Amino acid sequence: MLSSSFFYHSISIDALASATGTAYSTYNEAMAGMRFNSTPAVIAAACLLASYQTGVQSRHLRSLDSAFLATDSNRDYTHLGCFVDNRSDRVLGYKLVDEEVDTELCYDYCLEQNAPFMATQWGIECWCATEPDLEYERHGEAEELCDYKCGGDNNEICGGYLAFDLYEIESFTTM
Fold first, then answer.
1. Is residue 94 within 8 Å of residue 69, measured between CB atoms?
2. I need a labelling partner for 162 at 20 to 30 A (CA). Which of 19, 35, 85, 129 fits?
3. Domain spans of the chain?
4. Superkingdom of the source (predicted)?
């Protein structure tokens, strides 16, 4: 018997094609019309494989990834979403600019700052916030604006122009 926290999902090749916005025939070639009855992590892996083979990245894959897949077992953070930034009213404080920015580098930097929140922006920026009650939604959500690839890992998204991908560092929220 499966535990209540273990969910099965069914997804067809049509759903994969729809979720990524690519043509059915492209995914049909990549995935050979397979049907998946599996966990979200396995479905996300299938989406990733299809994305890799077709060159089309799914926005839905990002939400599956942050919800179900651990980026690194030693790094404990949760993606909260993409939010609008404002130059005259910054949400986050500490800033690192580095051509090699990715979520792992940002995580390490924000841990050094003792920050419970980290964010990537503009592909090369890492921001940290030390306030436990961060008002990160005050300028709105902007999932469609976070489309810049990370300078340190082209397979990751690191915010966008005046938009940041926000993460909560779990080790601070459990203390």
1. no
2. 19
3. 9-68, 77-173
4. Eukaryota
Our CA angle for 104, 79, 173, nearest 5°, is 90
Q: What is the value of pTM for the model shown? A: 0.58
Dihedral angle of Cα 63, 158, 117, 4, to the nearest 10 degrees: 20
Q: How far apart are the first and last CA of the chain?
A: 34
- What is the C-alpha radius of gyration for the chain, rounded to an integer number of angstroms? 17
pLDDT tens-digit map of 111-163: 999 999 999 999 999 999 999 899 999 999 999 999 999 999 999 999 999 99
Tokens of 93: 């404080």
Give the residue from 134, 142, 132 showing the smallest Cα distance to 165.
Answer: 142
Q: Tally Cβ neighbours within 10 Å of residue 144.
A: 10
Whole-angstrom distance, CA of residue 85 vs CA of residue 158: 13
* β-pairing verdict for 77-84 and 9-11: unpaired
